[in-house]
Amino acid sequence: CHPRGWHVRGTHARVSRARVMLDEASTDTEDPDRVSIKVVAPREVLSKLASQCQMEAGFKRGLTGVIYGLGEDRIEIITEGKRIDKFVDWIKQYLDTACAEIDSTCELTSVEAKDLVTSSGMYSTSFPLINFEKNVDRRVKINLQGDRQVLDYTLRHTKIEAEFNRQLTYTPHWLDDEQLELTVDGPVPQLKSFVRWCRRGPPLQRPEKVTIHWLEAGLDEARDMSTAFRDEGVGA
After folding, report:
1. What is the per-residue burial (b if ≥16 Cβ within 10 Å, else e) of 1-14?
2. Entry pTM
3. What pLDDT does residue 229 have?
4. What pLDDT score was predicted for residue 53?
5. CB 115: neighbour CB atoms within 10 A?
6. At a CB cut-off of 8 Å and minimum separation 6, what does 224 contact?
7. ∠ CA 90-95-101, rounded to 5°
8. Cα distance between the two ends of the chain
9. Closest by alpha carbon to 36, among 219, 199, 210?
10. Segment holding 43, helix H or strand E
11. What residues contact residue 29 under an 8 Å CB cut-off, 6+ apart?
């Protein structure tokens, strides 16, 4: 194990190109099921990295996740699955090569997520890129599965969390007695916060499974996704 604050720097002589920080203190196992990977790099590097994630993480490794664009030079990759450590290693190598080509510096921080109370498998293998754009609302579909009584209890809490605490537009829809779909619209920061709350669930009772489907386009381009989970196999 490496000590907290472990840094790995590029081996190239001219500049330190890739700086990697692993928060070892936050990792209870060698193979966490869910990891937040934050990358700081030039925009052209991030653009190529994001486009490669679907193939490398989703197609080759069977991981699921989402990518948040946090500005011109920062992204956060949320990924779930087995052997995520190998995917993190791939990102390190990718950044080292990409930053060397443009003689720039990149930074990666990988931290195990500890707020996941419900089961993993929340995202799809498509790794959609969701940008934090000002004045652009987006839509997210949240599918909750479990006992009807538990979902009724959860529904009361989600209304408070979405509408009152975050001023999001919120529409629930029962798919069947054990499956509830929430359609939530609003600014990405508030939506991301609400998704994080849904991962933890309300106190006392929580759904057995939570799956997330982000609409990548702006809300003005929204399409009907009432069967998105079943059509795309999300959370299957």
Report:
1. eeeeeeeeebeeee
2. 0.67
3. 33
4. 87
5. 10
6. none
7. 130
8. 35
9. 199
10. helix 43-53
11. none
CA distance 141 to 203: 22
Neighbouring residues of 94: CB distance < 8 A, sequence distance ≥ 6: 49, 52
Question: H/E/C letters for each residue in 62-100?
Answer: CCEEEEEEEECCEEEEEEECCCHHHHHHHHHHHHHHHHH
Q: Count of residues for the chain?
A: 236
Strand partners, 144: 180, 210
Find residue 112's DSSP bridge partners: 35
Task: Please state, in angstroms and as integers, the Cα–Cα distance from residue 219 to each residue in 183, 212, 234, following that order.
Answer: 12, 16, 21
CB 121 within 8 A of CB 78: no
232 and 213 Cβ atoms separated by less than 8 Å? yes
pLDDT digits (tens, 9 = 90+) for 186-217: 998 899 899 988 888 888 888 888 888 887 65
Q: What are phi and psi of 68, to 5 degrees?
A: -105, 125
Rounded to 5°, the CA angle 122-126-129 comes to 90
